[in-house]
Write a structure and sequence with these properties.
The structure is a single chain. This protein has about 325 residues and is mainly alpha-helical. Helix content is about 80%, strand content about 0%. α12 packs antiparallel against α13.
């Protein structure tokens, strides 16, 4: 197992380097001058030149990238052009709400999606299967902001059960924090849950057709044993892969959901800094999201090996 983890980490290094280069070039070659954005339209040429020198925009592209990459390796993501504080500090201030929302959405999605997918798979073609598939299609097709505003209208404004917007820190009041996260969790988790449920259903249907399932049934094993020990275990590798791959869907939903519910997390920060063209913060956020995605995929690879040891060879 340690050798597997090391090999996965080594394989990730060139990918991370390519992603970092892509992020750097994508922002530096995009239209717009950060110096003009910072100084304003009435800035003098001398002021613009000083700002470009401060940001390294007056250097050749390759030297600018090497300088930026060296700073990143030292944990220095630069200064925000508008907040005038280190990017790492700004991201740290917004990290907790996003981590809480992502964690809650993941737990909600997996807890709901896997049982629904299993039930639909073992009752293929029946009414319950069709009902689950309708919910899956709706959950994956409806825009995140539409789901969010619909939940706010019905459960916040009309029923008054949940808060409309805002976030309370977990360290300040755990119960109020979870209460504020219910609607955002459901909003961002529906598309993710739909993806997992669909793959769970397909995987269960495929496994239930295998010879060893028929053999287990012929031996007189109880249906719960056949499903839990033989079917679900062998169906889990593609489900685990889908859970990892769906993190991109989850992160994308977090950005929209935090804007809908006015949650001061990384998603809302991303929208704000993109509108302001705060290049250092955008680069830092993209690197962070990419790193989280790679980390999740590493965990998925490890779980995959634990469930199916054949992939070690």
């Amino acid at each position: 197992m340690p050798r597997l983890i090391l090999s996965r980490l080594m394989a990730t290094i060139p990918v991370v380097a390519i992603v970092a280069l892509f992020i750097f070039l994508m922002l530096r070659l995009s239209p717009g001058d950060p110096a003009i954005i910072m100084a304003g339209d009435n800035a003098t040429p001398a002021e613009l030149a000083a700002i470009r020198a401060q940001l390294g925009l007056d250097q050749p592209l390759i030297l600018s990238f090497l300088r930026w990459a060296g700073q990143v390796l030292q944990g220095d993501l630069g200064m925000s052009l508008f907040a005038h504080i280190p990017v790492t500090e700004l991201i740290g201030q917004r990290l907790e709400p996003t981590l809480m929302l992502t964690l809650c959405a993941t737990l909600f999605s997996v807890t709901v999606a896997v049982p629904l997918g299993v039930v639909a798979g073992i009752h293929q073609g029946k009414l319950i299967d069709r009902a689950v598939m309708v919910m899956v299609v709706l959950g994956f097709s409806l825009p995140v902001f539409l789901i969010g505003y619909g939940l706010v209208r019905e459960l916040s404004i009309q029923a008054g059960i949940f808060p409309v917007q805002g976030y309370v820190s977990l360290f300040e009041d755990p119960l109020r924090s979870l209460h504020h996260l219910v609607l955002p969790t459901v909003t961002v988790g529906l598309a993710y849950a739909s993806l997992v449920a669909r793959m769970t259903r397909s995987s269960i249907i495929e496994v239930m057709k295998q010879d060893y399932i028929r053999t287990a049934r012929a031996k007189g094993l109880r249906p719960r044993v056949v499903l839990g020990i033989h079917a679900l275990k062998n169906a889990s590798p593609p489900i685990i892969t889908t859970i990892g791959a769906g993190v991109a869907v989850l992160l994308g939903g977090v950005v929209v959901t935090e804007s809908v519910f006015a949650i001061p997390g990384l998603g809302r920060l991303t929208v704000d800094v993109v509108l302001r063209r705060d290049y250092p913060v955008i680069q830092g956020l993209l690197l962070l999201f990419s790193g989280l995605y790679f980390l999740v995929n590493l965990v998925v690879d490890i779980l995959y090996v634990m469930v199916d040891p054949r992939v070690r060879t």
